# Entry
Amino acid sequence: MNKKINVIEAIREVVGPAGWIDDDDGKEPYLKESRGLFRGDCAAVVRPASTAETAEVVRLCAKARIPITPQGGNTGHVGGGVPNGGIILCTGRMNRIRAIDPLNHTMTVEAGCILANLQKAASDADCLFPLSMASEGSCQIGGNLSSNAGGIAVLRYGNTRELVMGVEVVLPDGRIWDGLRGLRKDNTGYDLKHLFVGAEGTLGIITAAVLKLFPLPRARETALAAAPDLDSILELFKRVRDRAGDTLTGFEMMPRIGVEFALRHMPGVIDPFAEAHAHYALIELTSPRPDDPLRATLETVLAEALETGFVDDAVVATSETQCDQLWRIRESIPEAQKHEGASIKNDISVPISRIAEFMARARELVEHEIPGVRLCAFGHVGDGNIHFNLTQPLDAEREEFVAKWQPINRKVNALLAELGGSISAEHGIGRLKMDQLAEFRSDVELDVMQRIKRALDPDNVMNPGKLFKS
Ligand SMILES: Cc1cc2nc3c(=O)[nH]c(=O)nc-3n(C[C@H](O)[C@H](O)[C@H](O)COP(=O)(O)OP(=O)(O)OC[C@H]3O[C@@H](n4cnc5c(N)ncnc54)[C@H](O)[C@@H]3O)c2cc1C
# Structure
């Protein structure tokens, strides 16, 4: 025990007062997950200012077997950054952009950089860093990498994994691996960076990364289409994709109930249509060519769709303000849902060709299990990713409804397994989905994952109790 106290003192000396929080009020915001589902405790929140300090802190913890919970912006949804004792190692002070190389189209950044700041820095250099999500004002790139975050431009640019070319990592024994390569081609054995992307902090602490940049979009067109059913939305997606190619940057689906929630609770949300419709598709095309005929492409597809009858109405934004207004509807849904009571959330994916079957069968299932449940399933339909969220029935007790989270999800998961889907499209496993991982990964796969964990972190100091139980 005394030895541990001495180590905690030694860690405090490494980071100094600016990197040390151990009073209850100061620690409080770091101890719980963004949705309030999990809460933990820790001896201190440690905020190193550099990779060298991080390595020294990890080395001290490894020696004394003190658990480390890495934390970025703490916006994760699955409890991955919630501590189980030990220390929280927060990357927020490592927030320098080390270099921007416009010719190589790369940016070398530290883990604690806020995502929105990286987007801005790229844009100031006349480039695009395309990762984008509603939490971009608070989440950090280290957290994005560790959760392999998705967001609203995956369709065109891929998940965070596709956006990284190199990483710098402090390993669980305190050694620094400098893998900050900016190479588009490098076939020299195992590509280790991918071990750390999506590892949720269980294999080491990402301290910096080389990110890919892209040409800045010079043309943007946004449309909202209203459709009678989900099959029509999917048919529209296929047609837009075929016509627009990789100028199709976003294709988001919203059900009427989600739009109603947004209209009811969120200021500034406007329904552009005179009538209510069952489903909506928010479509965005972008291009680096200012004269790209994106508008003509969109209008042609939408006109054909209106004629054929699988779109009932459509609006193409005529100004940036209108674009933002259309996006505001979609982005308001998660927040609006909170005003309607408790939610049971599922962040699922299936092959796009199975979305309609999943939605029909899953709806029947949840409505049978929870009569009166209000299904608000929306999201990145172009990525096969649906936020399959259940809002409590109007007359239900909150606690009674939330108690159904695990039983209902087990049933939804069984359906996902049958359809070749995933229980976590974007948010990871963390603590929330640990029990379910075994149903979606084979024994061979789980064994390989655990061997990797043991090889890198034999004493299980790095984010214990996340991803795997042991
Ligand atoms: C309003 C809102 C909207 C969101 N929208 C999306 C969305 O569209 N798509 C999406 O994918 N997610 C979304 N999220 C979830 C969340 O923002 C992302 O998962 C984000 O990538 C987490 O980043 P963070 O810095 O907050 O990480 P944290 O929450 O701090 O950590 C996440 C995980 O990564 C680990 N970790 C953090 N930093 C490091 C590091 N440097 N090295 C090693 N491990 C580390 C933590 O231990 C934890 O397991 C949303 C969240 C909110 C609140």
In short: The mean pLDDT is 95. The pocket of flavin-adenine dinucleotide is lined by residues 34, 69-77, 80-81, 91, 111, 133-135, 139-140, 142-144, 146-147, 149-151, 200-201, 205-206, 426-427, 430, 463, 466 (CB under 6 Å). The radius of gyration is 23 Å.
